[in-house]
Amino acid sequence: MRKKKTLSFVQKKERYGYGFIAIWLVGTLLWFIIPLIESLRYSFMDVKPETSGMQGIWVGMDNYAYALMGDGVYRNALADVLWEMLWKTPLILIFSLFIAVILNQKFKGRWIVRSIFFLPVIIATGPVYNIIKGNIDTSGVSSARQFSTLFSVDLIGELFEFLGIYGMSDAVQRGIETISDNLSGIVWNAGIQILLFLAALQTIPSHAREAAEIEGATGWEYFWKIVLPLVSPMLLTCLIFTVIDSFTAPDNAVMERVLELQQLDWQFGRAAAMVWLYFGIVMAAVGIISAVMRHFIYYEMD
Amino acid sequence: MSRSVMHLRTQKRAYFHRKAFIDMFWRIVRTLLLLGLCFVILYPLLYMVSCAFRTQEDMRDPTVMWIPHHVTLKTIQKTAEAMEYGTTFLKTMLLNIGCSLVQVMVCAVTGYGFARFRFRGRRLLFGVVLMQILVPSQIISIPQYMEFRYCLGLQPLAEKLSPTFGDMLNLINTPLTMYLPAMTGNGIRAGLMIFIFRQFFRGLPKELEEAAYLDGCGAFRTFWQVMAPNAASAFLTVFLFSVVFYWNDYYVSSAFFTRNETMALMLRNLKTLLWGNAAAEISPREQIIWLEAGCLLAILPLLVMYAFLQRYFTEGIEHSGLAG
After folding, report:
1. DSSP code string of B47-95
2. Which of A17, A137, B111, B236 is surrounded by the most beta carbons within 10 Å?
């Protein structure tokens, strides 16, 4: 009797699974895994491009030491970018949640407002944003923000002066100024987050609101006790999205420095070390924040 | 008794009065707030339009805020000439649409594989997808450049056989540098697209495929004939985003194109294109109208596309399954 070799359904499905991801797998090996390992190798080497390919000598941690100790531009840029990420990310999250709550209400012209808020997503990623930001030198290596056409007026400061309040403490004044100066930066970077929050808000059933109203909850209580817990999973998604969006942008100061080293100085080893260092710090930060946030997220059990 | 009812009524009336007042107040605040924020977003665009049609004198004239005294098309014309607008537009469009099409297909197939099949190493491989979302292209662009320059190490061998054959395998400055990664699901933001497709396909009911399997349909045919038609709107959304990503990209393309091939690169090098080496001598204040005109030209196709397909951009994200 001939023993017919048949695959079970499960085995068959497993093969199909590999079949579906095969093209991607090949591409990933060629254009992702190998370059990733190469780049990590570069970061420990003094690399010089030769006619036959990259030649390098092993220098150990020298490039990393240079990035942290030797390169003032990089160090300052790193400190600035991390600091900006630290205060800007929560502001973007709060702002986009707030706008999403407003856009979730019904009013005339809602779709116009929504499409305007989403407009920056289409534009803000290209070199156009550099020019808008006033980065006249479009080569992207210097960042003289002298002719910004982004809207930035110290409205709040003027409002306080109008009201006759002068004696505010400097720290508060400065804080408010930074926020109002960066308003457009925040608005311009919140497009996707607003949509994500909006999607989460729309999953809240309308009877939740009715029940809360019958129980006599105010809008304020409704927001804090019902809306916020229900959108909290999205909060983490948006947080990670915001961080990644800002740190992979070619127009942030650290990446500009890296680009400068790569394209002008041909210091590929040092550039690789810098970018890996930056990547490591940001990933560590994201890891810690999401581990902490996980405790505060409310997952509805089905 | 009746007194307490009366009391209740006045209380109720007061409550409704208060509610109506708060509602009214909130509506006004909301309108002002939204108008203000929309203005903040539109401000640079309005300024762009206002600048692009000005003459140089208007730029120096401090009385001109928004509406130029002398309207001219000369700036736009000259900028368009410098950017070789027609050819650049066609080239960029062709490259974008081609890359986006193949990339979206491959990402959909891959996303479906991750969504519906259990196989060994799936979790690990999906971890690689997440890594692709997280790792910035600045990390891998230089090794990728070497791969394209030497065609994965084949080029030096070919060079020995014949120099022309060697030249052929130098892929730098050819569209292949964009197409090859796109074709294999590794183009610009491909990781994100795979993730979105996986989420989307996981959200579709399993009964759809099971019926097809029972009818003896293979997995690949099931995918194209049953699943893909159900995912038409997801395909469109991801495709549109892909076109936008490719259109706006200048980092990846500047790494692999030494000549100005795409719109974003033209805009980035606009100053050199307009004035050559003399660019440094021209004051930023004069440069600004040219740059703004260039911006307007570069984003015009995107704005037109957005105006017509706005629904698919915004609703697509809401329905992509990212929310669930």
Report:
1. HHHHHHTB-HHHHH-TT-SSS-SSB-SHHHHHHHHHTTHHHHHHHHHHH
2. B111
Tell me if B144 and A35 make a contact (CB, 8 A cut-off): yes
Torsion-angle region of A140 (φ positive above 0: left; ψ -120 to 50: alpha; else: beta):
left
User: Where in the sequence is the domain holding A23, given as residue range(s)?
Assistant: 1-42
Assigned domain for A166 exists:
no
- The structural domains of chain B, with segments of one domain joined by +, span 2-41, 76-319
ipTM over 0.90? The verdict is no
B126 near A CB under 8 A: no
B125, B128, B129, B131 alpha-carbon torsion, rounded to 10°: 160
Q: Are residue A119 and residue A6 in the same domain, yes or no?
A: no
CB contact under 8 A, B323 and A132: no
Task: Give the pLDDT confidence score for residue B75 in this predicted structure.
Answer: 84
Kindly state whether residue A281 falls inside one of the protein's structural domains. yes
Tell me which DSSP letter residue B4 carries. H
pLDDT per position as a tens digit, B232-250: 888 988 899 899 989 988 8
pLDDT digits 0-9 by tens, A15-49: 888 999 999 999 999 999 999 999 999 999 888 87
Q: Which residues have C-beta within 8 Å of that of residue B5, sequence separation ≥ 6?
A: none
CB contact under 8 A, B267 and A128: yes
Number of domains in chain A: 2
Residue A28 within a domain: yes
Pick from A13, A123, A271: which is nearest to B117 by CB? A13
Distance from CA of A166 to the nearest CA of B (A): 25
Cβ atoms B142, A272 nearer than 8 A: yes
Q: Would you identify the CATH topology of the domain B76-319?
A: MetI-like fold (1.10.3720)
Q: Does any domain span residue A233? A: yes
CA-to-CA dists, residue A297 to A292, B119, B145, angstroms: 10, 31, 42
Shortest distance between the Cα of A153 and any Cα of chain B, in A, equals: 10
Chain B window 18-37: which residues touch A at a Cβ cutoff of 8 Å? 27, 30-31, 33-34, 37
To the nearest whole angstrom, how far is the Cα of A126 from the nearest Cα of chain B? 4
Task: Using the structure block, give the residue that is written with the tokens 């946030």.
Answer: A293
Contacting residues for A86 by C-beta, under 8 A, at least 6 apart: none
Give the angle subtended at the CA of B248 by the CAs of B244 and B253, to the nearest 5°. 120
